[in-house]
């Protein structure tokens, strides 16, 4: 999709108004609706602007640019010259149509990658940064199914569920968009540099923040609002009671988007946010097909049978690697902790635990038996295991 070419004067006017302190996107949209392009807004008198917006905002719009504005403008020019980098303005045909339904759409979007994905049907997959192994698996599996069905998967490039959602989509058709809370020239967290490179090559990175903007906690709720605005629905995989994912879901609900949540164990802290949303009206879903059906999409064909993983023998950890459980004060072998972390709070089979822990069959069976005798887990019918419920 081609974007509108901008002259240097037009680019400077867009950048000046979009970065003017005290001029929020809602007020800027009103000015653009009244006077046209940013150059026309900047040519108006204070009195003319004050008739459309309040006096303080009119002063903000006409205030001289900051001393470092020429450097900012040069940086944007240089960034646009790199292959795959596109600056999309509010009046550009390439601007995402769903964002135009918001009262405060960002005036500028910095897009790195396939800008056409911003016009496709999409769903957000979000959740905890500290996701359990089960949450990572669910996010990956759901996102891949959505991508295979033709949906673009949108998330926030964060650790945990977000990263798993992007990777799952890349395993499918590769249609994924990462909405980031920094400038488009930065990657946060730094551990996701390789993932961001993959997304830019097969999907798109999107930011509304000026180049060079670092990661700040205040940026991420606004990032979540943009995620909700871009999509037709939001799926929350895991979320604690105080979670940015719940902010995304709230924005989505206010914008009339569908909200879905995956339930979990009543003992799992990261299921409580999902359960709260379900109580408030989010759709409880257990399979990707349920979400696709709600959105009017055909489910992808079933995947080919997967061979069970080959088990590798691993050396037993040294006593120095042992940990202590705070409940009992008793030293706990490292493999016990590894298996409990892999088990999470949802039932899992021997095959799943072997894949997650990389234990050989003998070590896995002995560790399971030891934890069962210690009351840390319970064996369920069908060869599954689950953490033991604890009171208090």
From TrEMBL:
Protein family per UniProt: Belongs to the DprA/Smf family.
Domain Smf/DprA SLOG: 87-295
Domain of life: Bacteria
NCBIfam families: dprA
Taxonomic source organism: Paraburkholderia steynii
GO biological process: DNA-mediated transformation
Region entry Disordered, spans: 299-333
Database matches in Pfam families: DNA_processg_A, WHD_DprA
Ranges of residues in domain DprA winged helix: 326-383
InterPro entries: DprA (IPR003488), DprA_WH (IPR041614), DrpA_SLOG (IPR057666), WH-like_DNA-bd_sf (IPR036388)
Protein name: DNA processing protein
Amino acid composition bias (Pro residues), ranges on this chain: 299-308
Signal peptide from the UniProt entry: none
């Amino acid at each position: 999709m081609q974007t509108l070419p901008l002259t240097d004067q037009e680019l400077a006017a867009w950048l000046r108004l979009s970065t003017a302190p005290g001029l929020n996107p809602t007020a800027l949209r009103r000015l653009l609706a009244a006077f046209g392009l940013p150059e026309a807004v900047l040519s108006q008198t204070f009195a003319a602007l004050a008739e459309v917006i309040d006096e303080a905002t009119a002063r903000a719009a006409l205030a001289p640019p900051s001393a470092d504005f020429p450097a900012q403008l040069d940086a944007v020019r240089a960034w646009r010259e790199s292959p795959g980098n596109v600056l999309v303005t509010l009046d550009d045909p390439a601007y995402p149509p769903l964002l135009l339904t918001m009262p405060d759409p960002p005036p500028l979007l910095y897009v790195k990658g396939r800008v056409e994905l911003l016009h496709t049907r999409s769903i957000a997959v979000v959740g905890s940064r500290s996701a359990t192994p089960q949450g990572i698996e669910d996010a990956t599996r759901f996102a891949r199914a959505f991508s295979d069905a033709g949906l673009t998967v949108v998330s926030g490039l964060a650790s945990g569920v977000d990263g798993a959602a992007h990777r799952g989509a890349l395993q499918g058709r590769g249609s994924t968009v990462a909405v980031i809370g920094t400038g488009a020239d930065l990657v946060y967290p730094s551990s996701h540099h390789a993932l961001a490179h993959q997304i830019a090559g097969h999907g798109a990175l999107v930011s509304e923040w000026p180049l060079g903007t670092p990661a700040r906690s205040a940026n991420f709720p606004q990032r979540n609002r943009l995620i909700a605005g871009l999509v037709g629905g939001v799926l929350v995989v895991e979320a604690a009671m105080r979670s940015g994912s719940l902010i995304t879901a709230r924005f989505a609900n206010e914008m009339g988007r569908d909200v879905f949540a995956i339930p979990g164990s009543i003992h799992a802290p990261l299921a409580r946010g999902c359960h709260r949303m379900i109580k408030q009206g989010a759709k409880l879903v257990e399979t990707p097909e349920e979400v696709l059906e709600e959105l009017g999409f055909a489910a992808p064909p079933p995947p080919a049978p997967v061979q069970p993983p080959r088990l590798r023998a691993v050396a037993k950890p040294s006593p120095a690697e042992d940990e202590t459980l705070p409940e009992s004060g008793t030293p706990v072998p490292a493999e016990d902790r590894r298996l409990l972390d892999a088990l999470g709070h949802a039932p899992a089979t021997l095959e799943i635990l072997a894949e997650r822990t990389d234990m050989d069959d003998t070590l896995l069976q002995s560790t399971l038996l030891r934890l069962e005798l210690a009351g840390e887990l319970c064996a369920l019918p069908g060869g599954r295991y689950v953490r033991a419920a604890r009171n208090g």
